[in-house]
Amino acid sequence: MYTEFEATFANVSQAEARKRLVKAGAKLVKPEFLMKRITFNLPVGNELSGGWLRVRDEGDQITMSLKIIDGKNITDQREICLKVDDFNQAVELLEFMGARRKAYQESRREIWHLNNVEICLDEWPYLEPFVEVEGQGEAEVKDVSQKLGFDYNQAQFGAVSLLYNKKYSLSEDEINNNIARITFDEPNPFRQR
Predict the structure, then answer these.
(1) Given 3.20.20.70, 3.10.150.10, 2.40.320.10, 1.20.140.10, which CATH number is that of 2-182?
(2) What are phi and psi of 29, to 5 degrees?
């Protein structure tokens, strides 16, 4: 398991972010694409504080991950991520092992690279776009964030549920465990609560 050094900057204009990326010399690695994921609670008896499982179709690859976010600092994010070759079989494997399905979720992502740091322009249903900056350590994440004109003091560290929590005033527990579908073509599930 490795620490995932990732900072999120909320409510970002994608057009402005692209201008900043080009000006800083970043390279577009992958144009915007749709991601689909299913998230799971860990099997009973194997729960981890802040932990969950995910199978994600990233268009050109499928990944299966154990994610743990057990604090509000950049160093409180950990992940094990495997590439798999079949979305449905990965889902079936986790369910067979006792993982309990939580939600189906969609998002759109565009990936850029600058100085060995990955910058993602993300869009989730019913949220303003945001930027994620991910690198091998906090210093390089902070450096690239500042090169792109982001105030590192405004960075957030955690899952997307933190952004939904701030916008809709629902607890992260409610978002993570009671909202079964987050999609672009269905009614806003956060306003129906």
Answers:
(1) 2.40.320.10
(2) -95, -35
pTM, 2 dp: 0.94
pLDDT in tens, 93-121: 999 999 999 999 999 999 999 999 999 99
How many CA within 13 A on the CB side of residue 113?
5
CB 182 within 8 A of CB 170: no
C-alpha radius of gyration, the chain, whole number: 16
Please report which residue ranges of the chain form alpha helices under DSSP H: 14-24, 87-96, 138-147, 160-168, 172-178
How distant is the alpha carbon of residue 36 from its chain centre? 12
The beta strands (E) that lie in the chain are given as 2-3, 5-9, 27-41, 51-57, 62-69, 77-84, 100-114, 117-123, 130-135, 181-182
